[in-house]
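cache lookup: miss for this entity combination. No prior model stored, computing from scratch. Input as submitted by user K.M.:
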Amino acid sequence: MKEININVEHLTRIEGHGNIILNAKNGNVEKVMWEVSEAPRLFEAFVREKPYHQLAQITSRICGICSIGHTLASLKATEAAMDIQISPQSELLRRLAIHGENMQSHILHLGYLVSPDLFGVGSVIPLVKTHTDAVLAVVKLHRLANEFSEVVCGRTTHPTNLIPGGFYKTPSPLKLKEYRQKLLDSVETAETVAEIILDNIGALPSFSRETEFIALTTEDEYALYDGVIGSTDAGTYPVEEYVNVVNEFVVPQSTAKYCKNKREAFMVGALARFNLNHEKLSPMALKWAEKFGLRPVCHNPFMNNVAQLVEIVHSIEDSVSLIDRLLIDYKDESRPVITPKAGRGVGAVDVPRGILFHEYTYDKDGICKKANCVIPTNQNHNNIQHDFETFAPQLLDKPEKEIELNLEMLVRAYDPCVSCSTHFLKVEWKR
Amino acid sequence: MKIIINDTEYEFKKGQMVLDVARANGVHLPTLCFNPLNAQARPAGCRLCVVEVLEGGRPGLQSSCTLPATDGLKVSTRSRPVYNQRREVVELLLSEHEQDCRNCFVSGDCVFSELSREYDINGVSVCSECPNRKQGCLLSRGVLCLGPITYANCDAYCTRRGYNCEGCHSVMKNEDLLRFGLEAFAKAEFTKEEILEAARVFSFEGVDVLEKVMIEEGFK
């Protein structure tokens, strides 16, 4: 029997640095490992002793792709700690913000990072020549999502408009109307992209491993901005008890912490949201889920890509109906006044890659004394590792290149944001 | 025979110019037109090697590549007039240059990008790009905006859209530019600590210089 040694250092087309290691001999996997090698980010230490109004500004810099999600989680934690109620209008606007980001992040992942695997090329660049229309549709959708985020949040990345208590400047109703129309027009583009992916979906390997799925969930909507923690294994938990759900622990091969709940690992992200909340998706999103054969509870991690596509359609439809609700009675509520207060608060938002927690403790002047951020990707690392352990033995009779590609595609399906997730610093003192 | 450069005495041989003495002793003097392979030709054209003559010669700024070293000559290579003169020279040279050094891809491997960093050439504040600078300045409306003391080149993205500048391009490190920028804060009622706290979010080095200048300017 042949000997297989795969060492992918670093894996491309994901955010951040991670390595894949596989050693097999005589048809037995000796070692298979998902390694996270990126340096820790130390944001929880940066924000200590900083005043409350700077926290969202600073923590949004954890990520360049999901900065709006970090801002919202941070604001929700601050508002929970200080008992600040935001107006119903601000809440609707924040839902728009998370939709904008969801669209932007998902189309980036599907269009630029996953599609080369579907077409069997190395990157998106060759596709420009061979599938010009498809790439243009992706760019168009990405651009719209970015512009829409800018209208609501003031800036595409690292938003300036979102502040504790509401909005620095209420977005202009004329702009919202303009983008309502643009979103309606973009449905066609999104369907073009979906058709192309549907035609090539056969390239995704079929693989399934039962696991636990965790996402925010509420009674009345497809939860992204607000809700309680839901699990496919164990019902619901209040957001404040997030520490007992994620159960972080440290492993030697990773600078990111690992997580587990009821089973050996759990998964968060678009697929988890779909599995928990699918019945609240918009009609067109459900139609597309049906076309792809995506049905809950789906245990194939590769279908996370499809769930993301379904969510893009949902975000477009839901944004339009949110704007309609907003514009019925739209007021200028710029720069809300708030008073700092001592307390501890947890904010949870379902961002593109899964459920994100921020927790802050403030003193009476609104100075942050303690912070904790649990990032979706670090909840997924453990599940990626367990998927590897199940998936690798099934692949061994394939050529080495193909094994490598399959493992890479598996990691990519999770849309990991590795640099967000690195928290743990192992220091070896030499005296 | 000895000359004094920046308060330190250096030996020299007859016929040596001040530049030669400085270079031989490791004193930094920038040059562009001086060619070490053809040291006899001294066009004295770039004017970057100017030094200020303090004693023992005609006082004022002179190009060190053509200034003969004489016994007892005392010069400075880093006085304020020298710095200003060099800065102006580099600024004029770069005025015809297409690429902004701070966005340039060769950054770090170009004599001009080094000079521009050394003399803070691209250091204009966000105000220079801000459409509100003539009327409707956020500072005059009581909003703490770091625009006047933050490096530009963002096309005033935030202030153009009505948000305050957070200083994410870093607070300027040049004292003169800071002093000029701080004039805008003199009319607004912010304490020194408030401004410094806002600046500390995205700046590190610049904040120390800012604090020093603020103390000198009498901010409370």
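stored under new cache key. The first helix of chain B runs from residue 18 to 24.
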